[in-house]
Amino acid sequence: MKKTIKGNPYITWVLRVLLILTILFFALFSMDVIEEGKGFWETLADFFMHSLPSIVMIVILIVAWKNELLGGILLILGVIGFAIFLHFKINHVTYLLAIPFLAGALFVVNYYFLGKKSDN
Questions:
Q1: CA angle 72, 111, 97 (to 5 degrees)
Q2: Do residues 26 and 57 touch, judged by C-beta distance below 8 A?
Q3: CA-based max dimension of the chain
Q4: pLDDT tens digits for 89-117?
Q5: Predicted confidence (pLDDT) per residue in 3-22, tens digit
Q6: Nearby residues of 23 by Cβ (< 8 Å), 6 or more positions away
Q7: Which pLDDT does position 19 carry in this prediction?
Q8: For a disulfide at 27, which of 43, 54, 86, 110, Cβ 3.0-4.6 Å?
């Protein structure tokens, strides 16, 4: 009996690593809030606000690790939501959103179209 395995495992791992690297890259931008003269609580609040995209992508990565299709859809919706929040302004942030959007789209494509047949 043929059983369909959803997604190619090699592409799944490449997408996971790509998303982890993207999260680390976005997290680097959180460090720019540390300035001399700011109070602890103000710095902490600014750091949290700048870390929100990374935190959201970490949660989506955890979901995608368990359910590739749902993780890909959430990643695409998250990028679209963030673009709406930015009022679709074309700037450097919009270009950075292309990477998570493509990763989400590739999670969905991998789930539906790149599965292999197994004899189990």
A1: 25
A2: yes
A3: 68
A4: 666 667 778 888 999 998 888 888 776 54
A5: 555 677 888 888 899 999 99
A6: 54, 57, 58, 61
A7: 92
A8: 54
Q: HEC profile for 17-79?
A: HHHHHHHHHHHHHHHHHCCCCCCHHHHHHHHHHHHHHHHHHHHHHHHHHHCHHHHHHHHHHHH
Tallying the residues shown for the chain, one arrives at: 120
Q: Give 15 or 2, the one with higher predicted confidence.
A: 15
Q: Is the dihedral of CA 92, 51, 69, 3 positive or negative?
A: positive
Domain limits, the chain: 7-113
Q: Is the pTM of this model over 0.85?
A: no
